[in-house]
Amino acid sequence: VFALCEACHADLRIFADGRAMTDRASMEYNAACHARKGSTEARQPDDGRFTIVRDFAEWMSRHAHAVEKFCMFFHSAEEARQYLPRFTAIRGVEVVQGSPDNIEVTAAGVNKGESLLALADHLGIPREATLAVGDSENDRAMLEKAGVAAVMANGMEHIRRLADIVSENDNDHDGVAEIFARLGV
Question: Which helix (H) or strand (E) holds 107?
Answer without folding.
Answer: strand 102-107
